[in-house]
Amino acid sequence: MLGICRGRRKFLAASLTILFVPAITWIYLFAGSFEDGKPVSLSPLESQPHSPRYTASSQRERESLEVRVREVEEENRVLRKQLSLAQSRGPAHHRGNHSKTYSMEEGTGDSESLRAGIVAGNSSECGQQPVVEKCETIHVAIVCAGYNASRDVVTLVKSVLFHRRNPLHFHLIADAIAKQILATLFQTWMVPAVRIDFYDADELKSEVSWIPNKHYSGIYGLMKLVLTKTLPSNLERVIVLDTDITFATDIAELWAVFHKFKGQQVLGLVENQSDWYLGNLWKNHRPWPALGRGYNTGVILLLLDKLRKMKWEQMWRLTAERELMSMLSTSLADQDIFNAVIKQNPFLVYQLPCFWNVQLSDHTRSEQCYRDVSDLKVIHWNSPKKLRVKNKHVEFFRNLYLTFLEYDGNLLRRELFGCPSEADVNSENLQKQLSELDEDDLCYEFRRERFTVHRTHLYFLHYEYEPASDNTDVTLVAQLSMDRLQMLEAICKHWEGPISLALYLSDAEAQQFLRYAQGSEVLMSRHNVGYHIVYKEGQFYPVNLLRNVAMKHISTPYMFLSDIDFLPMYGLYEYLRKSVIQLDLANTKKALIVPAFETLRYRLSFPKSKAELLSMLDMGTLFTFRYHVWTKGHAPTNFAKWRTATTPYRVEWEADFEPYVVVRKDCPEYDRRFVGFGWNKVAHIMELDAQEYEFTVLPNAYMIHMPHAPSFDITKFRSNKQYRICLKTLKEEFQQDMSRHYGFAALKYLTAENNS
Fold first, then answer.
1. Phi/psi-derived region of residue 418, left when phi > 0, alpha when psi is between -120 and 50, beta in every other case
2. What is the pTM for the complete model shown?
3. Which of 138, 333, 574, 671 is the most exposed place for a label (fewest CB within 10 A)?
């Protein structure tokens, strides 16, 4: 900042020099050209060497004066050159020092807004150049409600994190759904120097529910009005953002603008970039009152302490009540009321340059706001059409948005050097656990994966389901990666009940999945499927972590632990609900086994009954699952008995048994040490047996495994000797842990393993 001030002082000094030095010089020369009150000509053409008044001394004096004139003219030429260079470097210099100083005129091509800003007292002075301290915390408030907004806000947060160089404190006014999603997301994201606080949006509904609102944002679109009451009383200032915002610069630049507020200015806003408030968009269009074009509230700078002293709560309520008597409802939610208040009290607003909120709305005039797209700082997708809005630069805007949409969020976990982070118990525990591992251990990567925290976005799509009131409801639980998406529609056709799925995807793949799901009539017609994204990190497929995520987020008392490659028989959902009652699963520790079969055919006429399945089994169209490669995995199901069974029957645990089971939701989790291929289900069934679960085979239930290309992990298992050695080591350690935890009863697992 001091450098800029010095530069402006040099600019002023240079200007004065150019103006005054020549004048002073010529005055001096003019005065010196008189001798005895008579002028002496300095022109060589007028010199008269033979004049009696001409002497050697006067000749020397005149020559020295001519030399001095030439020197002054040369100095002036150099000064003018330096001045022009300084002027040409000025804008670039400002753009290259965003973290220190910010000028209001910077980057805007909107001369009307610029003049309006100057008239409003928004011009900056050298002595008041704003600055953001290196480790100063920037506070950001966002209203976020529902599944879609929770997904949209992530792109906004990514764009802010990408550019930021300061600690951030997000204040999220969220409903119960958004809080559940975002609390898990930020907890697993573990971004240093970022703090999150939640405020219950549902508790605020009564504050604004009396205001009729036609805007698509609904009641949540009015909640920015009550931030002075909602946010902590000791919070002095905050940047308020809509969820459909994308940052193209460091948010610290916007935070610095607070220092430019003067007098009673308490609201920083950008002028609305459409003709909405001018009332000329269509015949009989009657908008709320506004100052000129009005202001857009997608980006707001709030001086909370001053607003509270001004009794903001009373101010906006009285204005809203008065205007609603004639307007009846708001069309643009909180924005209408903000503008009505500003119309009555124009001194409240500090007009931000338009590049702080380039509005891509219907009827937008945002193209008049900037000379070049590189000048932009904040893009606001405030049209219901979002990315489909019309603008001559929309491709640039869309590409910028998509960059952050698909950007790997794990890369944003970077430390802010020189800024101490608040102590995080989870992070400290993780570091302690990792430090206890031996990095020279050949199985280090396997062990490390157990402690890896994967960023998790719950309920990526809309979810709506109320479990059956008879407490018999069952959720199908499974996990998958991108190469199994094609199974989703088929499973939804076979299973009409609720489903909980954990998907292991990158940020870019998550968006591909979103487009796939939104383009599927089958998937979009189902609101009882919970899609939970676990973002990729590390070299292994964390199969048991994925299962645990899917298990943890079910809303029914029972769950069917399946895999994505299996299609359940038609009607299995209702059959399992009846079996839950018949076998008193609520009061007994039972694991109900659904017998598993497989086909090697990609096109299968799915059997509609047990009799039809047995016929296909006899013809060789179907086989018992893994009959050819891993008989032990399902042999204890006793398929020979199942063929003729009409009632449920009990089977005993055997080594390597890994059936697909229905259990209560309180069953133990899967062990995370097993990743990729091998022993991930076996270990879980072993633990169920150790906890004295009774394994009961259902006589009229079945599921069929559909063929697919070998997974990457099974290929690694088959080709990598060290992989197999590490898996064996992990198995032995798991069995030892079982013995320590369950005592004498667990010795049979060691014996069974040795005999197998």
1. left
2. 0.80
3. 574
